[in-house]
Amino acid sequence: MKLVVINSEQIAIEPDIPQEPNEYYVSGRVEDSASQELIIGAIVSNGGNWTMTNDYGYFVLKSKHKLDQIEVFQLGYAAKLVSLKGNPSNFLTIRLSNQSILPTIIVSQSSDRNSEMKEWNEGIVSTRFIAAVPTAFGDRDVQRSLQSVAGISGGADGFGGLNVRGGGYDQNLIMLDDVPLYYSNHALGLFSIFNPDAIRNIQFVKDNFAAKYGGKLSSVIDIHSKDGSFNTWNAMLSTGLLSSKIQFDGPLMTEKLACFFSARRTMIDPFIKSLTKYFKEQGGKEGETKYYFYDLNAKLSYLINSKSRVYLSYYTGKDFFNDQELLYTENDNNSTVSRNFDQLEWRNQIASLRYHYSFTKSVF
């Protein structure tokens, strides 16, 4: 403290006010080095502090000490050490390279930091995790993969969607590219509408929902589709016991405008038709049953500048069921042939337009 003379009759005592320590920060975005797609859930650390990239691939890391370097890592990518020397803007564009590695078992002393990071990672479900879960008929499925997570179960006999911690399937908030979906299943809950090959990231939350998600009771499943590559064209065609798929993505304008398209359709129509026809004939009837479903995803991603991006997403999917029988009625004078059929269709169709702008180095 110090004495301050106000006048000949007054003396004031001014206490010493401790100065707040300087706070340093670094911000930026994390991208895939091959496609330039933004990576969600990547961990950015400087040893003492850490953070994660948000739903748009951006991050802000704060520290009370000057930052000289940071480390960035994400499952399925090679870890990268980034030096901050010679970067006065403190805004980084970090690109990670894909790395295929075998699962690693690490035995170490537990710490609060490791436990905290584990809790964060429990909310991010990677596409590699979906690929590692055993599949039915050789087809990966998002819904089946999530059922292997603790606290989640399916409905009776595998139908009915997801039940989280005893809640009902209608108590889950399911979103695709920020659009809520009110029915997310095919075949009455046996399969989900999400094509795993079209998914970039899944965020699954069982408790402590953010305010932006509203008031659902059981869980939040926030899914983002792929943006498409800004550099190279890629294509894929596959077929299996259950469905066939086609997919392609690439730059319409190099490093400026990217497109993504994916479609799948069941290929079991002929088998269902032949099987139901046989069983109806065994029962003395004539007829057949038809069933199929399909999904289609499309997306355009436009990079206006380093601060602005525009995304246009579209999804449509449909289930079709038709059962018909021929009935013969005979009497003394004539015979009558009639056809009875039941037909049922249900579908989803959504579109979203999203504009993302970085206001400052730390506000996205």
**What is the rounded distance between the termini?**
43 Å
The average pLDDT is 81
CATH architecture of the largest domain: Beta Complex
Described by the principal axes of the CA atoms, the overall outline is elongated
Overall description:
The structure is a single chain. The chain is mainly β. It folds into 2 domains: 24-121, Immunoglobulin-like (Sandwich); 125-357, TonB-dependent receptor, plug domain (Ferric Hydroxamate Uptake Protein, Chain A, domain 1, Beta Complex). It contains 4 helices and 24 strands. It has helices spanning 112-121, 127-132, 142-146, 269-282; strands at residues 2-5, 11-14, 24-32, 43-45, 50-52, 58-63, 69-73, 80-83, 91-96, 124-125, 152-154, 162-164, 172-176, 179-181, 185-186, 191-192, 199-205, 219-225, 234-239, 243-253, 257-266, 286-303, 308-330, 335-357. The strands form 7 sheets. The chain has a 6-stranded antiparallel beta sheet with strand order 19-20-21-22-23-24. Strands 10-17-18-13-14 form a 5-stranded mixed beta sheet. A 4-stranded antiparallel beta sheet has the order 5-4-7-8, with no helix packed on it. Strand 20 (243-253) and strand 21 (257-266) form a beta hairpin. The chain is elongated and about 130 Å long. Residues 111-122 have low confidence and may be disordered.
